[in-house]
Amino acid sequence: MDSIFFHRHFEETVLPDGILKGLKIAIQPNISVAGWPTEAGSGALTGFRALEDATLYRLIREAGAYVCGSTRMSEFGFGLTGSRAGKALISQEADVELVLDMTGESRLAAAGASVCGLKPSWGLVSHLGLIGLIPSMECCGIISENINNIRIILKSVAGPDERDFSMPDEEIPDFEPKGVDPAKIAVGILTEVQDALPSTEQNLFRREVDDLKKQGIPIRELSLPDFPLFMAVHQVVGSVEASSAAGRYDSVRYGRRAAGSKNWNEMYLASRGAAFGPLLKSYLFQGAYFQFQNYRAYEDACRLRARLCQQMEKLFTETDFLLFPAFRRGLSEKSLSLADTYAQFAETAFANVAGCPAFYIPPVAEERVGIQLAGPRRSDGRLLNFGEYTQNLRRGGH
Amino acid sequence: MEFEAVIGLEIHVELNCRTKLFCDCPNNPGDEPNANTCPVCLWFPGAVPRLSQEALEKAVLLCMGLGAQLQPRSAFDQKVYYYPDLPKGYQLSQAHLPLSRGGGIDIMDENGKMQRLRIHHIHMEEDVAKLVHEMEGRQPISLVDFNRAGAPLVEIVTEPDFRTPYQAMEFLKALRTQVRYVGASECSMENGTMRADANISIRPRGSNEMNTKVEVKNMNSIRHVGDAIAFEITRQTAAVHDGKPVILHTRLWDPDKKVTTAMRGKFEGPCVPDPMVPVIELSSDWIEKMRSRLPEMPAVRAARFVSRHGLTGEEAAFLSADPDVAGYFEELMSEGIAPRMALHWLTTQLLPALKERKQEVSASRVTSQRFGALLKMLSRDEINANAARETLTCMFENDDSPEVIVGARGFRQVSDVAALESLIEKVLGEQTEAVTDFHSGQGKAMGFLIGQVMKASGGKANPKMIRELLAAKLS
Q1: Is A289 within 8 Å of chain B by CB?
Q2: pTM score, whole prediction
Q3: Does domain B417-474 have CATH number 1.10.10.410?
Q4: Taking CB atoms and an 8 Å limit, are B276 and A127 in contact across chains?
Q5: Which residues of A touch B40 (CB under 8 A)?
Q6: 3-state secondary structure of B319
Q7: B182-232 pLDDT, tens per residue?
């Protein structure tokens, strides 16, 4: 049987007292823990053991968490092929899992396990020690059945790291749980998002919206005609960043070296050729295409991204939160093409492009579906409070 | 048809910072191979680069010293290419938004005309690793030393304003002086802290066309830059005369054969903004604060040496070229030494003596106070020039004041009239022939007699007084 865990860790030391005391957390092998095998799901890092702890890991340990190991992940966390994210929650081997989210992976992993999942605001948590692929879009998602677990973990890891200057100098959200007054909350849904869904999914999502409305949450329809461009921007900017990031993981100074090459240039080429899996290879080719052959398209995508971020900001002056569907579709164990992978994340990738927090809430009954809430950057605390309120309503209302 | 060359330079200057550009590793490339490395400069998975404040400050001072306009926003890009000395596949460099634009250096060209050579822009970037090719028995092996990987570099890209090898060499000399002044680098081409590549093309004299250029690398002295450019101009001119096209490529200068040889096609990879290194925003307050740290630049200092101390332009330029020498000269001025005397003794005695002992003027035990005291004794006629030279030699050996050395060694000049008169009496009694020669009008007899008196004094007599007293005696 294919195991959930890539690496198991059995704690012997006494853990410090802190807000995470007693919490069992599974991470992924792309979060550096000194001495642990840290292969990030890629042949390029075969045998690589991290030299020092990721800031994120250090902080949850200092808060008393017990990290029970790392679960199997997709190559560098891109897509869900080969990932066992969420399975340690189902098997009750962990209370919380940390799952890299660059396109929506943590939210769909939460959907797969029928638990809650938060992708925090970009730049809220240090990147130091995180082995990633799309630095400007990815961050570590937190998934758990218990929303308060997500809240206290985010509270212990959020904030500036003097070793990660890429973090914007912004205010840290307030993570205290607070009650919600539905009369003072405005929630929007995007016409373009609904229109793009197949009719069965449209009906399922519509039912969730109607249910919330019935529970007294005001929801109104808003428009963002450029919404489909989020995915286009992700495809261009994300693959370009990945092309450079994966170039760094050269598979030579650690990992495997291809044998039989005449000189070291050939050896590098052959090692890289052997290191990456088929999905990642096509992703990197796509990025290299924009880098070398169509740089103009990349520049356009960067401009579009800035415009999309502005449009989102403007929407969030009209509404507190946006409600999205989050369908987990087309999942199979076999490897997917790049196009299939993108199709999986059609409703989640926007949050990675805009850097805003997004929260997945699981279905409350059979034949119901999960929903996704998004808020403006750095609204993570409020988003969790509102998500908790919404989930209670949905449960009570059923 | 007569051709002229169009030349631009790309100069890499390694900043003399304590650490590398994006990590805290010591910036000492010469240490034991791979001693100065960490996850950041080895680019291990999970590492996050952090821009060094010191490197930014030194780069900013360098830009200011070259009269460049600092940009309020600059940013690092990934210059994507692969080579074994850059296994991570990209170099962090400021390709799209450089640290400064504009600026330039005034040089005197070969016709004695002042000419401004403009700088296009200046940007920061990280150095790559060093490749070492060795033999292990009969097996050739290649090794990578990451001590240099991530070292802080500044690249100065000029406009194609140069027409001759001479201008390029003068520019590099002036650039070296300016950068040393702001204290950002030693700028030694021999030690690799300054590296200059030249882009050279030719065109019919007087035309404005910009033709295909050839890049020439691997010159490790300013003279080699001149030689390589001269060779390349001749080579391209001959090729065009033979009807062969000039193609874009890179050539290496071979200092032994004094030729350039083709290395590779010039490859320009894409430059993508780096998502992890934050954009650098310089506020005008901060820029002003840095400007107050900028020392007086050599051209300004030289002008002051001319106007205040009466030096010639050439003397002033020589003195101001080295900030330490210029500072030493100014300290002598504040000790009240006459400018011409200070210049003469500094350039003909002290600097050669330092060079002979392989010492730096700033680190020598012959401080400006001690040297000044020596020159004061000379100007007060307490010692003569010979004694001053001997005293200087002693000053390199111990820390005694020149007064003590002069006293202990008996170098003090004899200026006592009675003592000198008795010496003169003695000499005149012995040298009757010379006295007769003098009276019969042979002028050189006077010189001989002065020499004899000096000899009798053990070299310590005041020569001016001997001449006066002798003249009175013999008249």
Answers
A1: no
A2: 0.85
A3: yes
A4: yes
A5: none
A6: helix
A7: 999 999 999 999 999 999 999 999 888 888 999 999 899 999 999 999 999
